[in-house]
Amino acid sequence: MEIRMLNMPEILPALRLAWEVFAEEIAPTYKPEGVESFRRFITYDYISQVWQRGNLVFFGAYEGEEMCGMLAVRPDGHIALFFVKKQWQGKGVGRMLFQAACFLCRNQLRVGRMTVNAAPKAVEKYMHMGMHAVSDVCETDGMVYVPMEMSVNDGMPVQKKSSKAPWIALGGYAVFLLFILIICAAIVKDEFRTELRDRNSMYDYGDDYDGDWPPYESGNEDSDDGIDSDEDDVLSGAGGIPEYIAEDLPYEIEDDEYVFSGEAMESAFVEFNVIYPKVTGLADAETEKAINESLKNIAKETVARIYENPSPEIKERVLSEDTPLLIDYVDYKVCFASEDILSVVYDDSACEGGQNYYAQHLRTCNINMKDGTVYEVKDIIKLNDAFIENWLVRMRQEAGKQEFLSELDLESMKKALEGDSQDGVYEVNFFLDENGIEIGFDLNYKADDPNDLKFVWVTAPFSFDEIEEYAADNDFWKYVRK
Predict the structure, then answer these.
(1) Rounded to an integer, what distance in angstroms lies between the CA atom of residue 196 and that of residue 205?
(2) What are residue 146's DSSP bridge partners?
């Protein structure tokens, strides 16, 4: 499934899809005036003018050449149209479209919230995507709806059914994020970035439509399906890590950021938005400075690699692309914080040269708050055969694939856990959380590598009791067991 921004020739098919789904599933429940109001809104002549002024951004979901669903969002973060073909409902298509719109609102449009006027039957679905009702049921021009909204400042909610929420990112999950490449290329080529970002401008929707925006946009009940509504669902990714934050910490943690946009660059699109934690309040100013430098440097690893100190490979990509794209978005979560130890995970999404070079990474930082020591797996774990065999069993359980990592023999696996990434393929990471420790790889297989099972990263969980027999003689464990 591919999620991408739509160009002008694709707007008409998207509107046809919206009308077909509306006519079949929604119109029978509407008063005639509501059906007519919707019909007038989605006329091609009107919508194409709105799109050309940059006042609507369209996304389409494609399986091969077939458009399976569509979503249109205004520059103020309001979802104006949201429909999925009946045969594609319940397969996660609506969820991917919603996440694409959320990512756009947060990182391109820079709006703080998204809104939608949802059909009463769709309210529960939107709630599972993070939205909440802001008033009771309303009716306008024969259309019944519930106004809903959500903050996008805390990131995109992504759900999966799991009680433990093991932190595994599938390559398939990255597909919807690939849309950012098309967004950025379109922004460069069509030169409407400024217009989209001007959140305070007045939106001129033209004179052809004399009513308000239709109060019911995401018409079909299951347009955002693919989200399990079981009550025990938990967030996956960073949001699914059960964090431990000790009480009365002798320091405070606040957001800091590195933001750069190559506005003056005509030949490339360059944008970085790297958010990372900053520690304040430590008694030793030099230690605090060293800790914050480490937290920042790990967050900026991709920026350094693709922009500040690019490799020959990155330089070649940039020179060969018609529209070079150097983009990095990083967010973080503190998953363990005690008086002595801080464990942070970073979710890093990047475009490393061009639209065909999308990458997603797991980065971690585990640091001693007393002296600034940054720990690695080889510092804290006895990497003997017994541990590696146990760890591999857990990794394969998490991946659900017995062939996972079968290309590595025991010695190669040990070297990878010691920090030999073997040309960047196996980047070792670990983090602490409420339940114990997770150890694994950020995976970066080369294109067409037959060993690539499309995992972005996999980490294997151990409780503190389970890891004890493999713990190295390091003060790290003394601090953790306090």
Answers:
(1) 14
(2) 118
